[in-house]
Amino acid sequence: MRLIATGLLVAMAGTFFLARHFETADPAWGYLRAFAEAAMVGGLADWFAVTALFRHPLGLPIPHTAIIPENKDRIADTMATFLQDNFLTPQVVARRLQALNAATLAGQFLANPRGSESRLRDGATSLVADVLESLDQEKLGGIAKGALRGQIEKLDLAPLLGQLLGAMIADGRHMPLIESLIRKTAHTLEANEDMIRAMIHERANALVRFARLDERLANTILDGLYKLLAETVVMPDHPLRVKIEDGLNQLAHDLVHDPEMRARVERMKGEVLANPAFAGWLDALWERGRARLLKAVREPEGVLSGQIGDSLGELGRALQHDARLQVLVNRFARRTLVGVASRYGGQIVRLVSETVRRWDARTVTDRIEGAVGRDLQFIRINGTVVGGLVGVAIHAVDVLL
Predict the structure, then answer these.
(1) For the chain, which ranges sit under pLDDT 70?
(2) Residue 252 sits in which domain range?
(3) Residue 285 maps to a domain
């Protein structure tokens, strides 16, 4: 696009000299000369304006040029202030999200991730990936992991588990789980049959062993257990199955209503959060999430392809057409983003400001120019064409008057 814009400017210069040479032969050449002359002025002016944003035109230290490199720190602070004032205050986030159907937008992207592709979007996507790679990973990771830990600490886990278990029981979705558990028990019993026989043999007295009744006793016990498990699987009203269901119902009730059970779950949650293994899990989760996010930004086609892409596409279509799912997703998005803005807005904008300040001027220039890309050169082309049209209009007025 730079070559096209520059080539157009050169073509206007050639047209100007050609029209000037033949201007005396026919008045029409005067209009062409006026068009080319004004087009050169417009093209040069816009070339100067575009170039002055990122560097000194022709390398000359003209005042108020190389605006972005010379004002890098001020741009960093301005970006941070802009983010803080327009995006990261709880009031602004809540107000903007009221009219935003995040579920539908997410659904449209998941169903057709490349449907709204544009040059500017691709440039901005590349810029986002560069920013993610350049940010201070310790600070950014600390913010992300701290946010996740804080949400888990505030989560009242016992009632949530109780409600989920109660919903599963009400819908009958616990039955396959019970049957799978019984079958797993049977397989475990079968795999350890020799060990059970040995245990019975060791605990039998000498008389029982002498009469070889220990083997018969082991067979009787094992056959009874196998029969009990088989009947439990095939009989919906089997007493053992009923007992398991009653136990699950009681557990769901206790998780929601029993203070002692809720306190026990909270203690278990606290022990898990205090365990060093949990901190290691958070670190690994952050690294995997960051790597996948970078891959998704840089290679959306690869991430959203195959079976995963088909599943995400189905989710996207559901998000677009299921009104109840949209309400749930939008409510969750609003609460989450407002909470993030309230707790971490200041840290986020400081992180952005400090990161941009650490970039050298060339990096800032290249990333911003790369993000805007071809559209900058269209400014030059438009300036050339518009300038030429204005030149023709001025020449016409001059001739007619």
Answers:
(1) 110, 112-140, 203-214, 296-312
(2) 157-257
(3) no
